[in-house]
Every structure is written in C-alpha cells, then in structure tokens.
Amino acid sequence: MKNTLLFAGLLFVNFQFFAQSNKSTKSFYQTYDWTAQPKKYDLTAEQADEKELILFERRATELLNADDGALVEYRFLHTITRLNSDAAIEDNNKYYVSNYTADKIIYQKARAIQPDGSIIEVSNADIKESLNEEGNVEYQYFAFEGIQLGSVIEYLQLIKFEPYFKGSVFLVQSNIPKLEAHYDLITPKYLEYEIFTVNGLEKLKRDSTKIDFIKYSIDLFNVEPLRSETSSSYKANLKKIYFKLDKNYSTGKANFFNYQNISKEIYDYKFKAISKKERKLILGLLKDAELKDTDSEVEKIQKIEKQVKKEFIVLNFNINQFEDIQNIFKGKIASEAGLSNIMLNAFRESNIPFEIAITTDRTINKFYKEYEAWNFLDEILFYFPGSKMYLSPNVNSRLGFVPYEYTGTNGLFIKETKIGSISTFESKVKFIDYPSSDKSKDIINTVVSLNDELTEAKIDIERITSGYKAYFYQAYMDYYDDERKKESQTEYLNYIDKDAEVKDMEFENADTDLLGIKPYIGKGKIVSTNFTENAGNKVLFKIGSLIGPQAEMYNEKERKIPVETEFTRKYERKIIFEVPDGYKVKNPEVLNMNVIPEMAKQPIGFTSTYVIEGNKIIVTVNEWYDELTYPLESYENYKNVINAAADFNKLVLVLEKI
Amino acid sequence: MASLSKPMFFTMTNLLVRSSFLLVLLIFGFSVSAQEIDLKAYKEKYPGNLAVYKTKKSVVTIDIKNNVPTVVTHYLDEYVILDSKIIGQFSEEEIVFSSYETIENIDAYSLVPNGTKFKKYKALDFNTRDKSPDGSVFHDDNKVTSFTYATMTEGSVKYLEYDEISHEFKFPFGFFFKSIFPIEHAEFVIDADSSIHIISSLMNNQNGLIKMSEEIVKGRRIIKFIGNDIKPLKFEDRAPSFRVFSPNVTSQISYYNEKGKRVNVLESIEDLHNWYQANLVEVENEVPSDEIKRISDSITSNSVTELDKVKAIYYWVQNNIKYIAFEEGANGFIPRQPSNVCRKRFGDCKDMASLIYSMLKSQNITSYLTWVGTRDIPMQYSDFPSTATDNHMIAVYQDKNGENYFLDATSSYQPIEIPTYFIQDKEVLMHKAVGKFELAKVPILAPEITRLVDSSFISIGDNKKLKGKAIVYTYGYYNTLIHDAYKNVKTEDRDLLVSRYNSRGNNTLKATNAVVQNIEKRDQPLKVSFDFELNNYISSYDDEIYVNMILDKEITYGEIAKDREAPLELGFQSFDTRVVTLEIPEGYKVKFIPANVNYTSEFIEYTIEYKMENNKLVSVQTVKFKFLYLQPNQFATWNEFNKIMKKSLSESVVLKKK
Lengths: 658, 658
Prior knowledge:
The complex is a heterodimer of chains A (658) and B (658).
Chain A: H1 4-7, H2 45-49, E1 52-65, E2 71-83, H3 86-92, E3 94-98, E4 102-113, E5 119-121, E6 128-131, E7 137-143, E8 152-161, E9 168-171, E10 178-188, E11 191-198, E12 205-206, E13 213-223, E14 240-248, E15 253-254, H4 259-270, H5 276-288, H6 297-311, E16 313-314, H7 325-331, E17 333-334, H8 336-349, E18 355-359, E19 379-384, E20 389-391, E21 409-419, E22 422-432, E23 441-450, E24 457-465, H9 467-474, H10 482-493, E25 502-508, E26 520-528, E27 532-535, E28 538-541, E29 563-564, E30 569-578, E31 583-585, E32 593-595, E33 604-613, E34 616-625, E35 629-630, H11 635-648, E36 653-657
Parallel strand pairs in A: 1-10, 16-17, 23-30
Antiparallel strand pairs in A: 1-2, 2-8, 3-7, 4-5, 4-8, 6-7, 9-14, 10-13, 11-14, 12-13, 14-15, 18-19, 18-21, 19-20, 21-22, 23-24, 24-26, 25-26, 27-28, 28-36, 29-35, 30-34, 31-36, 32-33, 33-34
Helix pairs in contact in A: 5-8, 6-8
Chain B: E1 12-13, E2 30-32, H1 39-45, E3 51-65, E4 68-81, H2 87-91, E5 92-97, E6 101-114, E7 117-122, E8 124-130, E9 137-140, E10 143-148, E11 157-166, E12 173-176, E13 183-193, E14 196-203, E15 211-217, E16 220-230, E17 248-258, E18 261-264, H3 269-276, H4 281-285, H5 290-299, H6 306-320, E19 322-323, E20 325-327, H7 338-344, E21 346-347, H8 349-362, E22 368-372, E23 392-398, E24 404-407, E25 427-433, E26 436-441, E27 451-460, E28 466-474, H9 477-488, H10 494-500, E29 510-517, E30 526-534, E31 539-541, E32 544-547, E33 568-569, E34 574-583, E35 588-592, E36 597-600, E37 604-613, E38 616-625, E39 629-630, H11 635-649, E40 653-657
Parallel strand pairs in B: 3-13, 9-20, 19-21, 27-34
Antiparallel strand pairs in B: 1-5, 2-7, 3-4, 4-11, 5-10, 6-7, 6-11, 8-10, 12-17, 13-16, 14-17, 15-16, 17-18, 22-23, 22-25, 23-24, 25-26, 27-28, 28-30, 29-30, 31-32, 32-40, 33-39, 34-38, 35-40, 36-37, 37-38
C-alpha cells in the first residue's frame, strides 16, 4: 500500500481509461487447482533438516478485461510449505489474509498434509472474517488443523482486486529457503508491464507460446535464503520483482508512470493554490514565528519549523480533517501530510526557495533511478538549495537531521518555477545527501579519582552529543513528562555504568528545537564500585569501561550483505585519571591503540593515545565512521574498527603501591 | 492462557495507525459555561504530570426486571489536560466490548478554554468495528467503538460518559483506584434495589485510602467506594500486575429476594461451581473418540504405573497441541469437545485440559477439570468466588495418596511434578462431580527445584587467552524457559547461540563444540556443554597474572531505587551454583585468594568459597532466592545483599611466577 499519509488525495484515479472490450474475460488461473494427491518431495538430508522449507511457491498478478470491458486485477497465490519445528508450526498454523481493497474472492483453499499422507482441508466455515465499520471484510483468518512436525501446509487463492498500475512488488527472497518458486505477470495483449528485477535476480522471460495475452514469468529453483545481519539493510537487499503498467498498444501510448507525469500529479496536489482564508491563517502563523528581515535564511526556516511543530499536534493516523489547512488551524491537530501542506505554504509565503524531495525508507527499498514508478515515493522532505539542508514534517526531527532512513538515497525533487506569470515545476531524481560525520558526534569527557580504599571510583562525567547522536535524546525533550525526561537524562549519563546513580545532573540545550543547532550537553557525578577490582596488594582499574559498552562483531558468520549504517558519526573520549597517592600505574602502554584500515581517505578508524602529566594519566580516544555504507570487501575492515573499540572497553590498568 | 472471564473495566486509549476516508467536515464549537478549571492551581498541585484524572467514576445500577436482575454500568471519565504533549495520545479513544455487553449513550466531548468560558467540541469520527484480537487470543467477538477528540488545548477538559449494559448478571463489576495519571476523585457506586444483596472484595487498601459506605435510602441499597488524590501508577521493572498491589474493588450480586423468596446468584464457591459445571457437561459426556483411544493406548503402551501413563499423556498434549485461542461468546468459557481438539491439534487452555481429561479417561484414569486464576489476579476463590477470580483452566490428577498434579499444557515443556510458574500459590477449583468440588492450593516451589549447576574448567593459554570447558545443568523452571531456544536452533547455529546468550567472562566469548542433551526429556536436567575461549579477560603484569574467578557477573539485577513503589516480583524461586576450576599454569603459584563470602537472610542466601585442590584453585558461588514477592518494607534486605554481591564480583586471584 502506498503511503496514505502523504498522498491521501491521490488514491482515487479513474482507470476506466484502460477499458477495452475483449474476449478473454476469465482468469488464466480460474481453473488452476492443486493436485488431489499431493506431490511427494524427495528431500536431501540437508533440506529435510530445515526448520521451515518452502517446497513450492507461485505468485501471479494478472490484468484482465471483465465482461463489461473494465480492467480488473487478479492476484494468484499457491504455496506449499514444510514445517519441521515447533517454531515453524507456531509461525504458520495461524493464517491471516489481508483483503484490503479486494473486490471478490474467486477461490481460497487451504489444507494440511500429514507426514503419514493424510490430508485435512480447512473448511470454508472455519475461515473467520474481520469486518470494518462499513461491514466489509478487512481480512480473513483461520487456523490450520492437525499440524504436526513434518506436516506440509498448502494454500491456494485467487482474488479479484481493483487494478493497481502504479508500481507493485513481489518479494522473491526471504529468510526461508525455497525449493521452487514461480512468478507470472499477465496482461491482455494490448497492455504490457515494465518489469524490473533487483539484487541479482535475472529478468523475467516472455512466453512466446501465448498469443491471446502477454505472459512474463520466471521459474526459480533452490532460492537461497538471506538471513538478517547486523548493520545491514536486510529488506533492501532481498531479490525482488518490481512492476508497473507501461504500454497500451491499442492507443499507442506508453510510459504512463514516469517521473515527469508523476511529478505533475504531486505538484498539482501539493502546490495547489490556497484560498484567501487559508492564506490569512498562514500569514498569521508567520507573524507568530517572528521572522525578522535580518534573519538568515536558515534562521527563518528554523523559526518556521519551530512554530509549526509547536503549534500543531501531529497524529500518526490520517483523517481528512487533519489535512485541511482551515481545520488544522481550528483544531490544532494535523496529520503529517497536513503539516507538510502548512510548511510548504509558509515557505512559499516567506519567499524561501525550496524544493520538495519524495523518497522511501532506504532500509526497505533502494530508490532505483532506472525504474520510474510510485514504488519509492512514500515520504516528503523539504530541500533548501540555499543551505543544501533538508527538513522533514516528522515532529521530532529538525532542519538538517531528517529521519536517517530518508538520507543517503535518491529522491524525486520537485521545484516550483515561473514562466512569466504562470507557475509550473521542474523535477529531477537526485541524491539526498547525508550530514558528514563531524555533524553527529558523541563526546565523553571523564575525570576519575579513587577513594582511599581504592574500592570506589568518583567520576565527573560530561557528555556532549550533536546531530544524529543527540537525536535519540534531544529530539524527544519537548515530548516527555518530567519523570520520563529524568529517566532519559540519567540513561544519557549512566551509559558508562548502567547501575550508577547520577548526582548533580545538569543539562544544557535540553530542547527539541535546538536539535541540529546546539549540542546536547549533560554533566553529572557518579560514584561506582564497578570500575575497580581488588587483586591482593594490587588494584585493577577498569579504565576501558569509561567509554561505555561498545557494539561488537566478535562472533559473526560469513558476511552476505554489505554494511549499511544509520548515519555517519564520530566518537571522541577524553579520560583524565588521577592516580591515587602512593600508587603507580604499571602498564600505561596498553592505552596505545591504533586501528586505521588501509582504505582510500581513511573513512574509518580507532585510535587511542595517552600522556602523563604529574599524577594524571590523560587518555584521548578517537573513533570515526565517515561513510554510510561499506561494500562486502571492506567488511573485515569495518569489523576490525568496531572490535577495536570493544577491545578498548576491556582495558585494565594495574595499580601498585610505590 | 485463555481469558475465561469477560468483564471489561477499562476504556483504552489506542494509538494504532488507522485511516479513514470521511468527507471533510468543518469542526464547529459551541460556547458553554462549565465549572471553572484553575489550570495554574492544577499544574502546581500535579507538577510534571501531563494530565489529571479529575473524575473517574462508575455507577452500577441494578434492578429487578421481569424477575431477573439487570446490571447497567454508567462510566464517567473527566480529564484536565495540563500539558499539550498528551493531546496526541488523548485524541483517539476507544471502548472495547464483548458480546456480553452493549454500549449505549456515549457522550464524548472536549471543553476548550475560550476567555472566561469554554467552547464545547463534540468528538467525531465514531465507528464500530470488529476488534483485531491481540495478545494470546486468535479469534474473539470483541468489538470496538472508536472516536476522535479533534480539538483540545492545554487546560481543556476531555469528557466521556457512556452506559454499558451487561447481558449476564452473574458477572462481577469492578473498579481500579489507579491510573497512569493522578486521580483527583475516584468513585465507585453500586445503586441497587434494596432486595438485591451485594458482596464486594476491596483489595490492597493498606493505607485506608479508599473509604467504603453502605446505606439504604428510599428502597435503594447504595454502596460507595471513594478515594481522593490518588498518586499515578509508576512503571517499574519486575513489578507484578498493578492489580496485585494497588487498590481495586470487585463486587457482584450474592442473592436477591423475589416475592419473599431468596434467589441465590453468587455468594459462595458452591454457587460459582454450580454455575460453572454446566460448561463441562459436553466434555464430560463425550466418550473418548477412536483417535483419542488409539493415541492414548499407543503412547502409554510402555507405561508401568498409572503416573507413567498420566505423564505420557500430559507430555503428548504439550508436544502436539499448539496454543490457539478462539473466544467467541460462550466459547470463552466452555471447553471444546476433546475429539475436536485432538483432530485439530490446537486449542486454548480449556481445550488442552479437556483433551487431557479425555485421554486419561480412555485409560480409565480419573482427572478433574479445574479452574484457576493466574498470579496477576489478586483474589483467591476463598476471598471472592467470581469469574474475575480465574482466567485459566487446567486438569488435575490426584494419585492414590491424594497428591495433586496440576496439568497445564499451555506450557510446552513442563515436567509433571512442577506446576506452571504463573499459578504458584493460587487456589484451584476442581470439578469432581455434579455438585461436588474441591478447593486446593498450588504450592510455591522451593528454590531447590529450579537449579542451575554451572561448572567451568579454565586454564590460561597463549596471549592471555582464557580457555575453558563448561558444563551447565539446568532444572525446573529454568528448563521451561530456555528449552525453546535450544529446541528451535539449527544444529549449525548452536555454537553461535551459546556464544551470544552467555554472560561468562566478556562479550568476546566464543563457544565451540556445543552439545545439548536431554532436550526432549522433561524429567532430566537439561545439559549443555561447550568449549570456550575468552580474549582480554585476564590481565597480567611482569610476573603476575590476575584472574577474576567469578566469570558470570550478571547474576541478578542491581540496587532497588529508594522511591520504588511496586513489590519486586520473581517468576519463581531459584538456587544457582557456579563452580570455576582454574588450573594453575606451570611455574606459577597462587599469591592471593579473595576472602570467602557468606550472606544469609530470610529471603536470600549468597556464598562464595575459594579452595585449593592440588594444582587447581576452585571457586564455588551460590545464590538462592527464597521469595516470590519482596515488599517495599523488605527492600533494605535486597540492597544489603546487592552491596555484598557487588563487592564479591570485584575480586581477582593473583598468580605469581615461582
């Protein structure tokens, strides 16, 4: 389902345009059936050991002219799955079918085949329906009966839908192996899909034996599973088939969904002229934002963003009341789409040059330039060419730091232009740049001394974070009650010792509106017994713990997916350790560490150095990740830097009485 | 667990994403005068709170109509918004109800300050639909009416009133004197015809906060429970359900007089049993089906004693019947026919109990269908016999000595001697025959039942690597918890699983050659053995090596905060022993051994003993928890233990070159 948040108004489009009288009004799958006697599968030992195994899968989408000539869409599914563990049974014995927007269920069958060959078919009476407010079926669900270890479940359905041409997808790969998988796309012979396969999946082939309609298909055997990995965009790396309607041979038209006409559709909807009343409301808002002529463009944008996000409550569900400017001002409640309408008009009225950029969550889909459709158009951002910064209607984000999933990927940029007095637009697919690593820093400064018994460490801690490293804390400050705020701030400082009580907490810039403008600074005092160990006449000081717990990649399987991180970042740590009177540190040299992989421009690294000044040991630690993504061949390098920090975390100084 | 009881005491705020395609209606407000809300005074009285529950009130009106009692509950909720942060959450409201209730006369609006008056905005976007089942229930017939408060600001009042008409006068009615917001005035009123007699159970009123009164006024029996200025509920780790420790009242009709004749409703356990037993008639009357007989014969063919047979049947049901709950109307109370459950291979708690009952019957073994409440229900049957007292069903087998075995197959790895942990200390109501029942209590199992015996044999390898072999035996509830993880992991991933879920040493732990034994033998301890390696765990300097022999430092959680309000809850009592045997490297001697620890209190025992055995140093650490609930006045004991434990974890053995 496309994002209704953004384009609720664009959902209903008249598709009668594609109607044509045609003889073939029956679905290709109308008479498809499973074999009464299920096929026996000879599994290898390895296949038989799989906890869950898809023995067979066939999916199809078919466009067809109904008797009245109107175009309809059939979606066909046939799966046969072997369940060989309790977890697999529990994951599969309850079946939900969402029939949102479904027009008619042509058939729907399910059965379980037991290891002894007996078959239990789910009867129609056992299929439950959940009704929405109009009394329509929202989804159906049932439980497979009689399932045991080694059972095979089979499901078959053909459902008629309102046709959707604008961009759909088949997921070919998952974390479950598939012995056999088939995907078919069928259109009447005057229509044709554009099909785009990704992540190493070969192209679909046209079946030249079919002359009454066009059929593209792909037949796959032994589809390897892809398992989720740390620091990766798992879903974006799965083999998939994207498709959209592309050609109508009867009219000679083609390329219906290209970014030029999609941009026009979005432009017409989002940039439409507002009424006098609406304009008055927007001007009032700008007045409240107190823009000054002397303000820089960035300051103006920040003031508008602050005012809009303060003025209106944003609800994460969409009713039209919350998208309409007049209603929003009345009720003070907006949807994100409504908020973006207000922002757009506010920037327009204050003559700040901007573009909108429409994009998608890069952890789920890569935005492929070469396939133009609605698949990747879910979220709206504002782009300001003057400062090259982005802004999101998301209430927690602030200028320059939009939700990270929408950075580091392409977007469809739309800009309003004027030809004479006529407003029109320009659009282009461009890369949405992400902030450099020095914009998202995490700095921890600690000054540590020990009590006389050397059992307790007294730590003065200061933590300074900026950009995305502050996001998780600073962005939520205006939305927390006092108790939750205190909890968040305690967490921010006792990061280095989760049991510790933090005293004398002081915070600066604890304000959502300062995200991206000023760093989030917390200071406090911790007294903890977790940093020292007694070892006879020696004391072990766990200095490494002062950088806080670190992510590690010590035990990893062979890497399959490139590393993709949330955002680029830098860590800086300074530790001032006051060596107790009468003691000396026997092994300060362990504090020297240097892991900078040989890569062009040294995008990642971990270093640690120290100096001794009087009774103080001063340690400086730097760690940086300047790129968002690292190809498979750089994986070892990335892992080594991550693990270097985790190794530092375990460093211990030996203190001995002089 | 299935919820056997249906009454619902709450309206819930729901924040799920929902879309709706209503026409845009302009929002209109009406000016009204309302009682004065002094926002400033409220903010001072409830600092840091986002809203105050101004009135939380339920009035239950009971009359006799057509010779039967009718029960109507009138709900009234009135909040004052103290901070606009809460508006998003407050905007969507829903009332969930089952087929045993009808909702009528909803009056929902917000009062928004407007000068010295208020503007009244009616809630909008009302709709009623099937509720998506959540939690453990797969299918029920609950419905939800939802609506939106589209206009609210700081200082606004959110108001909701409605009637809930009960279709079952035997159900109890109740009230919670707690909310996540401070409550200014809470009131629960029962207004009944004076011929109707009521019993009530007021729980957790330790501080006398809730005042109760009963009087007869003009032929009406008026019972009131009133509480003022109630502190908000805090969310605290390892806290029991808030019902267990905060004030709440449950009431029901005990009997009424009709034309001078007393008509019993629910006054005693006898009454409850008399009512409940009708639900069991069909299960009791069913002759075990051929399939039940065949399976039961086959799995008990090698059983010697009757208990062996019970065990075989109980374990078969655990292994083969998956938990799926259908709760439609009376199906929430009536177990399904055993033959049906057996064929389907799934069911809820009642269905599993029903199948166990029938399988045992097929072997001429008597068992009893039994109702019980889980530990998150504060009442026992002897406190208050009602449908609110239980929510679960099991089967009970009594051996010749009268010993009870509590058979609860909703847990898939439960040895027969051990009742499921969540019904410990609860009364059970056993159905023995028509008109005959027995009350018994599930024991609290001693710590010795749930044991961990963990042995590590470690030696020091090259590069300060610690090498070791571990053998871990687990018993009792530990097994029921960890069993699934081992059962569902692929053999090739077992080492990785052991490495990741192990807090031995540090996170570099790499496990190899992991072997898991007794995975299908509930009566045996689970045995996991593996080899391991740890980097950067031991330190050394010059001719000394420092080894902290307490490898696993995550024994339990830390200090209890001073202001904690909820009791500390454990799932079960436990007794852990960890033995670490260190081989002294050749050429080294032991220079320092930490002191032994011996701590005993009423609730906790904790010991560490170090001893030399030939060229090996052995540490034995034990932790015993002898409670299920620790009350606030007992927290000092915990913190005392915590301090001693923490200190004991920061002690290293020193080895020195000879």
